[in-house]
Amino acid sequence: MAEAPTVPDRPIVLYGDRMWDSPYFFSVFVALREKSLPFEVATLDLDRGEQRAPRFRDRSLTARIPALDHDGLMLTESLAIIEYLDERFPAPGWRSLLPATTVQRARARQLLGWLRSDLLALRDERPTTTMFFERASTPLSEKGKASADKLIRVAEQIVPKGEGDLFGLWSTADADLAFMLHRLILNDDDLPERLVRYAARQWSRPSVRAFVEHDRPDRS
């Protein structure tokens, strides 16, 4: 019989941006909620450079957010944090953040890395401010449309025909892909209905809603 999971012996602190609109902060926040781990959130004002304050900079090494502070370790880079959480709090005691098989985990990591490093025009023209504050006021440029088309092509290949989770069971790749798709959905850009339904289903998870519906400061 599997041993019951225990509460972490030291508190977990997640550092994120004050505006609550970073996709990488989102990714780690959702991961912690899915793991059902108790944690505190501390936010930094990036516009004022609080992430470069020596106390945070020196402990985090890279002075970037999100950062996870746990058990003497201050770790940045969302993918590194997700890997750490899955190894430090493994299944079956805690929900897995990555798929079960080697092949599926490789594909999930490929997707997660790609979402963070490509689609630059789409991220530029549909920044997260247009998701959580004011919607975009101009249509996608030619480069933006090409970037959106690439996202759609990949999503149509990887999202199951039944629109369930990417690898049979939920993984953090589902949350991150849905976040990227919502850059288009929330700005009324064209997206195949099948992908809209998939993204909406992922967007309805309690862990995701907790981030999306969190109070945000006035940008003005």
Account of the 3D structure:
There is one protein chain. By secondary structure, the protein is α+β, with helices and mostly antiparallel strands. It folds into 2 domains: 12-96, Glutaredoxin; 102-206, Glutathione S-transferase Yfyf (Class Pi), Chain A, domain 2, CATH 1.20.1050. The chain has 10 helices and 4 strands; from the N terminus they run E-H-E-H-E-E-H-H-H-H-H-H-H-H. The chain has helices at 23-34, 54-60, 78-88, 102-117, 120-125, 129-132, 142-158, 172-185, 193-203, 206-212; strands spanning 12-17, 39-44, 67-70, 73-76. The protein has a 4-stranded mixed beta sheet, covered by helices on one side. Helix 1 (23-34) crosses helix 8. The longest helix is centred in the C-terminal third of the chain and has 17 residues, at 142-158. The chain is globular and about 45 Å long. It starts with 11 loop residues before the first strand and ends in an 8-residue tail after the last helix.
Biggest β-sheet: strands ordered side by side in the sheet = 2-1-3-4
Instruction: Identify the CATH architecture of the largest domain.
Output: Up-down Bundle
Mean pLDDT: 94
What count of helical segments does DSSP give? 10
CATH class of the largest domain: Mainly Alpha
Q: How far is the first residue's CA from the last residue's CA?
A: 55 Å
Range of strand content:
5-15%
Total number of domains: 2
Largest sheet: 4 strands, mixed
The helix content, as a percent range, equals 40-55%
Strand and helix order: EHEHEEHHHHHHHH
Oligomer: single chain
What sort of overall outline do the alpha carbons produce when their principal axes are compared?
globular
